[in-house]
Amino acid sequence: MYRQSINGITRLLLVGMVLYGGLLLYLYVNQHNILYLPDYPTRQVRSTPALIGLDFEPVTLTAADGVRLNGWFIPAEAQRATLLFFHGNAGNISHRLDSLRRFHQLGLSVLIIDYRGYGDSEGEPSEAGIYQDADAAWRYLTETREIPAGEILLLGRSFGGAVAAYLASQHAALGVVLESTFTSAPEMAAELYPWLPARWLTRFSYDTRSRLADIQMPLMVIHSRGDEIIPFSQGSALYEAANEPKQFLELNGSHNDGLMINADRYRQALNNFISVCLAQREH
What we know:
- It is built from ten helices and eight strands.
- It is α/β, with parallel strands linked by helices.
- Helix 3 crosses helix 4 (159-170).
């Protein structure tokens, strides 16, 4: 009887180990689909800035590896600066019309692009590829449109913050804003899956925090204490790691509704940050 109990426990442990190993293998193989969500809620670009009364120019960019990217350039009449906007990991540029309206109201011309594999852009997402997409957007503004680097503000939301931080570490822009952004992909994975060795399974880096040492321009971190996806502690860690001059805007609300709940505070804080960037540029 005792031996049968031991054998039963052993079998249960073996089954548990097999299931656990299978889960680890699944997460390792499928993490590409876990991170990139171009089809949520849809990959189709169903609307344009014209829907909210904004003039825009369709933009087609070509990354260094030949992948063609889709985007929009929305000019502002009384332009204070040009914003290069990197959106989050779900959906496409047509799901960011509310943001484009806010930026336009602040006197910003905006370039927004879809990463490879998103919206009407070609290719499949990858970390190296998305950095090439950011480089292509920068070249479009500085070379094709001949906008001085000192007149370009970088803004990345959520996953896009890692992309904006990459670009800010490569070029001296007007300033950079990181909204609801994680410190790195491995640290984010560890937060989401604390019962797994997620940090060591993660094949992506997106190391936003390590980029900050190379960023020598005004920086603003925006994060909600109620963010249920990317912990507030990661936004705080980014702020602590950043060089001066820097600002922190604390919001309330969830990851996706914080900007809507705090619309006035967000607009005022971003307006003030733009003024600070412009004033520092003059000096």
